[in-house]
Each structure stands twice: as structure tokens, then as C-alpha cells.
Input
Amino acid sequence: MRWLVNAYERLAGHPLRHFREDFCGTAALSCAFVKRHPDNHAIGVDLDGPTLSWGMTHNVAALTEEARERVALVQADVRDVTRPKVELLAAANFSWFVFHERPALKLYFENAKRSIKSGGWLFLDLWGGSESHACHTETRRLKGFTYTWDQVDFDPINARTVAHIHFGFRDGSKLKNAFTYDWRMWSIPEATDLLREVGFEDVHVYWESAEPETGKGTGIFRRREIGTPDLSYVAYVMGRCP
Ligand SMILES: C[S@@+](CC[C@H](N)C(=O)[O-])C[C@H]1O[C@@H](n2cnc3c(N)ncnc32)[C@H](O)[C@@H]1O
Output
């Protein structure tokens, strides 16, 4: 959240007070945002009722009563909500990859533009690289459990990928297919061209720098015109609403 707020405030030249989180799931970003300042307001939009309910019970309920008043969760398709207009609209966790066809993504970008105040910004994150166009499995050990990313299909003709997340626990139990994603692997120029086509201005990309010795990402994203041919990367895209 801190990166997003700083990026917005650097670009817009004033504090961010009205934020929308599309595909909000459990509304973690919206809750983090309203906690930051008593004038911050957030709206989270997601299709899935049970996920929103979990977010209400665990994330929104954990806020102070006053902060809770400044978060609104809406159960709807992100393409059907345009009000209240916000200063920053974010679609994070690559969730907009759910739109497989260009006309569907175009509708989403057009609706996002209608939902943002003049001079406000859209933020998208994006995952790519040659490894993302192949089937592979990667397991990470985290505190008390393992997390496995299991990319089981990639079709080069339509750039469709299917991936699962599995969890493993210390007692040997497993949660297979805890999450499944059926995504279109949109490239950066496909997304930036379409954003410009629907009228976003100053569309630009933030690229993550890499440790010189290991090549691993540093977590530092800077505005760049030229990237590097990484096996796997996450990039950020921002565009301004006219
Ligand atoms: C990858 S999850 C991201 C959740 C959230 N960003 C998080 O980190 O908890 C994708 C979310 O998008 C929602 N979703 C998918 N298509 C949608 C649509 N057209 N409109 C609104 N929400 C949608 C799903 O219900 C799901 O909660």
C-alpha cells in the first residue's frame, strides 16, 4: 500500500484520499488505506460474496469503528461500478488477467476510466517473462507451511494459462488446489497500448531492479522505458485519467 500511495502522491502532487480496490477479495488494501489517515476513504469491489464476507469479518471488523465507516465493500462485477469516482483505482494481484479477450479487457479499462476523477490514476500489476509461458512448479517454505505455485498449462495460441496454488502443513496434511487461476497472460505492450487507446495519458511502466550478484528482484520498482529479458518478472503500470 505504501508504494501505491507514494507513487500516486508523487505523480499527482497531493495526498491520496479516495481509493478503489478492484478484485478486492478480502479488502486487505482498502483496510490498510483507511488506517493510514482519518480522511482516507476506500471502496472495494469483488464478485464473490463469501470472500467479501470473510474480509468484512476479519479485516474490516478489525478496524476502529470510525475507520470502518470509511470503507465500503461492493459485491459486483468491476465493469459495472463507476461511483463514487476515486483518485486512484488499483487492480492488483494480476486479477485483471481474468479478462481473456481484448474486447472484455477494453470494456474494463473504459469503465475504470469512467470511475476515476480527472487527473486521477489507474494502477495495474502484471506478471510475465519466458518462464510464465511454460508449465512449472515452484515451492516456497514459509512460516509453518509450504506454498506451491503449480502452472499446469500454457497455450501459446491464445496466451491462456491455468495455475493452482497448493499448501502443505507441518502435520503432513495438504490443501491441494486451494486457488485456481485461469488467466490470459497479457504482455506489457498489449496492456499499455490498450490503455492509451481508451484514452489514458502518460501510461508508463515501473520495472523492478535486480541484485547484481544473484539477479534476484530487489523489491525496488522504478519508472523505466527499457526492461530486461528476465525469466519471470512483476511489473507495474500506471496511466492518468484525462
Ligand atoms: C486473485 S483474487 C485477488 C484477491 C485480492 N486482490 C486479494 O489479494 O485478496 C481475484 C478476485 O477477483 C474476483 N473477480 C474475478 N472476476 C471479477 C469481476 N469481473 N468483477 C469483480 N471481481 C472479480 C474474484 O472473486 C477474486 O476474489
The radius of gyration is 18 Å.
